[in-house]
Amino acid sequence: MAGNWLLPAETTSSGRPVLQPGEVESSLQPTVDLVNEENPNLPIFKSGLLILTTYRLLWLPNPESTTSAPTSKAVAVPLAAITHIFQSKKSIKGMFASPRVRFQVSVTPDGRVQERGSKSAVITLVFRGKSDPDSFVGKFYEAWRGRAWVGAVSASSQGESMPVVLGDGGGSSSSDTGFALKMPVVGVSGILRKEQEMWESTDKSLQDAFQDLNALMTKAKDMVILAEKMRQKLLSSSSSSSSSTQTNATNDEEMSSKEEMQEWLLSVGIISPVTKESAGALYHQQLSRQLADFVKIPLEKAGGIMNLIDIYCLFNRARGTELISPDDLLRACSLWEKFNVYVQTTNSLASHSALESRLIKLYLSKSSYYVDFYCSPVMLKKFESGVMVIQNKSHSDEEVFSRIRTLVQKPDALQTGISATDAARMLGIAPAMAKEHLLAAESKGFLCRDVSPDGFRFYINIFQDIDPNDLYLVKEYGIYDAWNRAAIASR
Amino acid sequence: MRRRPGIGGLQTAAAARDQYRLLGENVAKLRTDLMKEQLSTFRSQLEDFARKHKNDIRKNPVFRSQFHEMCAKVGVDPLASNKGFWAELLGIGDFYYELGVQIVDICLATRPHNGGLINLEELCKILSQRRKGAREAVSEDDCLRAISKLKVLGSGFEVITVGKRKLVRSVPTELKKDHNEILELSQAQGFVTVEEVERRLSWSTGRATDALETLLDEGLAMIDDGHRDGKRRYWFPCVSSVSSFVSSETL
């Protein structure tokens, strides 16, 4: 149990933390040690990445360091468990040592960090890198005092109660007859009055919130709920009104605003975008990971391949106001590539099994390479035309080659070969892409080309099956055999 | 309400029901109108804030995420920088980057209808609608400048000229499925004309011409201007052997 005196934290496949709903990232610090002062026997978390969020303090093993054991996992200290943050002492001695931040947490009797633990322990953070602990302490203190995790519980319960209120509102417009009959007559005016009051209060809260920025900041949570309410109502009202008899003009207008809403809903996604301010020197490295996590879903929807510019738009849309420049995006993508290059130079087979990547990792750590090590499932590809795309690795060469191979072994293809157009139709890709794939397959030795007035045609390579010492030997059930049969059948 | 027997009773009940429904409809209508009004205030306020307090919003990560959520829920584009002096002069600042993101967004949204080829004029129009909160109008020149900022990300996004019009192409040849449809179409006769492609696939002229020109450049098509009707024919020898069609035509 010695290793898990801290709570485990989840990470994504590219090594970004998985945040809880409502949790927002505020600062990242590289190479930080996490030490338990009470009990020095407990394992020390050495030079990892420290992430401060509004709920937790996360410590992630540093992928760049060669010293951290591969087994060490990401851990978390819930801010709720922190009972005190010590002021850092300024002394002459402190000038030369790495800056430290100490804080007290409540722990269970057996030493695990927990909210409302009976005992307490002091944890020290040691900042080894060139970082700015002072601003971090400021943010740390702010996040701790902000107590965002308290609001999260009540917000989720509010979220549950809200649909009930909405259900009342929606019910009157969709099933108004039943609603009116059930209510006593005096109730109608009562409902109207209540309605009126509700609108007035909404009006007032809107006015209050938008007085200035500070007012909006304090009221932000209510406003988010209000926005959600409005969206729901608009969506439900326009769907019910489209069935009722209304003039086409207003219908169109409503439909367009509804479309707008839905479209926008799709475009939010990243709650804690990596920014230069929060990540500092780690900016591009963290951005690269966030991007790798982000592109998975759109890539899947697009069939495994996407124009880099489309990704640029979607990624920025998901980041809201935190735009990244095209150059930053390119750099984030090229960090994946850096990893790929290493794989190819260290392992000529270039396959990505878990065992092998561990072997590579071992090799790299021995030769003390400075590598940003994580296995990204996506890659950047540049075509000769200058077009850049992002594609899934699984979508890449191996799979396409195997599909091409089955294609050229069909009886028809054995006789007449396939053209780029055929391949394009079969694989469901553009002819220009198909041609690239065919040429690549040819260079691997799977295909042979035949140039005729009808253009390029590709055939299965049967030279591999022919034994130079015995030219007339036809191996049974080989490709050569299949080709022979097809040739005979066509006669 | 006491239930009365007989046809008269039923009729009264029905009349009452009608009344209630009418009232309910009125209330519902009133409610929608009111809500629309509030929504539009909400929107315009958010737009204002996005423009005025951009830097303050970005400084506070928690508020930033809440602000984004609000914007997303009521349908406000948080990207609303003014062009400003420096952007105009040197092309620096967020303005052109924001515009770039919005342009690609529009291209993505309209792609199902136009196959990734959009008229620059139309693009500008949609863009201005999106940015109706902003005071400055967006010119075609601004669009071109924003698009040129995307050059770093490869040549998948470009402005081409067909006839007198400028078109923005957002799908690179490598990812274009239009060509497949043309090839499919050409299987019947071995050739297609621009008119035929437009009619059969209900594409715009630009889209069809662009796709056929690309196929020509790729070496997949051959043109034949010498036919009796004077229309240019695009032959696709790769689809099926030309000789078989030639022989069948001469026979």
From TrEMBL, chain A:
Component of the endosomal sorting complex required for transport II (ESCRT-II). GO terms for molecular function: phosphatidylinositol-3-phosphate binding; ubiquitin binding. Gene3D superfamilies: 6.10.140.260, Pleckstrin-homology domain (PH domain)/Phosphotyrosine-binding domain (PTB), Winged helix-like DNA-binding domain superfamily/Winged helix DNA-binding domain. One of its GO terms (biological process) is protein transport to vacuole involved in ubiquitin-dependent protein catabolic process via the multivesicular body sorting pathway. Keywords: Coiled coil, Cytoplasm, Endosome, Protein transport, Transport. It is found in: Cytoplasm; Endosome. The keyword Transport applies. Belongs to the VPS36 family. Pfam families: EAP30, Vps36_ESCRT-II. Residues 9-156 form the GLUE N-terminal domain. InterPro entries: GLUE_dom, PH-like_dom_sf, Snf8/Vps36, Vps36, WH-like_DNA-bd_sf, WH_DNA-bd_sf. Residues 1-23, 236-256 are annotated as: Disordered. Component of the ESCRT-II complex (endosomal sorting complex required for transport II), which is required for multivesicular body (MVB) formation and sorting of endosomal cargo proteins into MVBs. This is Vacuolar protein-sorting-associated protein 36. GO terms for cellular component: ESCRT II complex; late endosome membrane. It comes from the Eukaryota.
From TrEMBL, chain B:
GO terms for biological process: protein transport to vacuole involved in ubiquitin-dependent protein catabolic process via the multivesicular body sorting pathway. PANTHER family: EAP30 SUBUNIT OF ELL COMPLEX (PTHR12806), VACUOLAR-SORTING PROTEIN SNF8 (PTHR12806:SF0). Keywords: Protein transport, Transport. Belongs to the SNF8 family. It comes from the Eukaryota. Component of the endosomal sorting complex required for transport II (ESCRT-II), which is required for multivesicular body (MVB) formation and sorting of endosomal cargo proteins into MVBs. It comes from Lactuca sativa (Garden lettuce). Component of the endosomal sorting complex required for transport II (ESCRT-II). This is Vacuolar protein sorting-associated protein. GO terms for cellular component: ESCRT II complex.
